[in-house]
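In line with agreed milestones, work has continued on tokenised descriptions of protein folds. One protein thus recorded appears below exactly as we store it:

>
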Amino acid sequence: MKKRRKHNACLNCGELLQQKHNYCPNCGQENTDNHVSIGLLMREFTSNFFSLDSRFAHTVKPFLFNPGKITNAFINGRRVYYANPIRWYLVISILHFFILSKVFEPTVHDRKQRGFSEMEELSDAKYDSLYQIPDSLHEGWPLSGSRQRMVNHIIKTTELTSDGIMDSLKIQEESLASEFLVKKFIRINQETNASLNNYVLRQIPIIVFFILPIYAFLLKLFFWRKGLYIKHLIHSIHIHSFYFFLLSIVWLITLIFPGFQEYGLNFSILIMAVYILVSIKKVYGVRMRWGIIRLFFIGIIYMIFLSFSLLIGVLISLALL
């Protein structure tokens, strides 16, 4: 049986409780220790993901105009009144990337253009002449320039698969790594700009989701005495949720006024910096001066991790294409 450290009053609504109460008879929140665990966070997320209720309405105002309030409320045990942090993050991020896909919706030109269409167009006669060149003269890794143009020519004139193209060109690589890269080059070249861009765009939310714990670790590192790791993780989720919300507004305005994008992104960074500072002050109880100093170093380290993670994530995504 699950052990509970019970309270005399509900941490969410304040209802007086007895020791026999495992759940609050007024709001339904579990009567247990207010130190939330990662397991509890995930259980509350999975049990509520598909239901829309008043929690969202309660969350919107403090989320937008009172940074840090819902983080403190969740950590202090008031977990029924506000939306689950992971659920809240997913709803906002899904909305954000849906709007973003509309901003970068491919044009008719993108839907027709292939990634390597800038290469020299080959006539059949030129292709035949390159085909007669011995393999030893096709220097380059993983493919020589001439071989790349030949691959591009075959893709445009046939419906061969990547294996079929390699067989047609009699490409035989000495190592598995080289063979993998050649096949991947051919596979990517077979896609259009639009399909590649859409594919990479769909991977970014997944990549960013796995960056959340890294940002939480940085918060834990710079605010070591300010609570357990789960506190910093929830704070990280709320911070990223707010930035996705800001970007959603920027993309919506950009759809109406195409020239707004650059100004909107710069303005959103300024707003985000103020939001995080206020949130840090409220969640960790530090002075604004020390909050600014710590935020500066957190921001530098985080941007390095973010850039590296996005690069690795995109490369892995293309490798799995």
Residues 38-107+194-319 form one domain.
